[in-house]
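Sequence only, no structure available. Ideas?
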Amino acid sequence: RIARPCLFVYHSLSVLISFYRCYRWLIPMRELPEEIEQYRDRKWHREESLKVDSANEVEAMVEELGFCLGLTDIRKHMPSVYIAVCGRRDAHMPRTVQKDYEACRAWVLKDEVIARGKVYYGKLIKGNSWFLAPRMIPVFNAIWGCSRKGESGILSQNAQLVLKVLRKEWEMATADLREECGFKDKKDLTNAIDELQRRMKVVPQEALYVPKFTYIWTLAEARFPEEMEAKMPRDEAVRELARTYLEMCGMTLVGELSGKFGFQRWESGKANHELVNEKFAERLATGVYKLANL
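Reply:
I predicted one. Tokens follow.
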């Protein structure tokens, strides 16, 4: 009588173990292996020996990665200038950034890189500020930009007004731009500038602090004319973005690409499957992909 329940439990466990062995690749991973974290330490400059401390080093990092965030910490699970300045995994932005050396240093480097104009900088996706290598500008523009013919149907009236003024004046400070557009509320200009940055129409050209803080705004097509002129189909752009992101991260988990960039699941899956077909990536489980040569 006692042996029968034990035998039933034994057979049940055997069935579960056999099922897991056969179908464990369908169970999505939730944590990254340590070897992937070490790979990201090197690529994202999360090591003391790889810390960045100059505009040249920031530009070299952006060129190597393809793109990265600006002043965000580890909670975004993305490489950033701030993390590279800190040179460690557990980089957290403090509440009072004015008194923190690393946060201030990252801010200064950000301004220097903007003024040099060798890499693209703008508030692009989900309200975050991004640095893009020139080769990635056509990719992002194909996904989030809009053509000049489509501006009237996509951009708001305020955004179109700001764009019209900048196309006439070429570059303007924030206060002068608000006065020229006739905005009484500062929020109207802020929202219009944010919208134009998301659509890759306007970029900051320089940050000035004397006599008061202001950005000098200019057209993206004026600063990066060749890259903004290049055309690319959306599906090809999504695939190239997936390629760059996977090479940057080493491994991506379920829904990671869609979550970071706002793609539909089928669109991300299609891009990742194409990378597998090219032997660039390896599919480890449902929605989990790893660099094939890693």
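Residues 3-23 form the longest helix (21 residues).
Hope that gets you unstuck.
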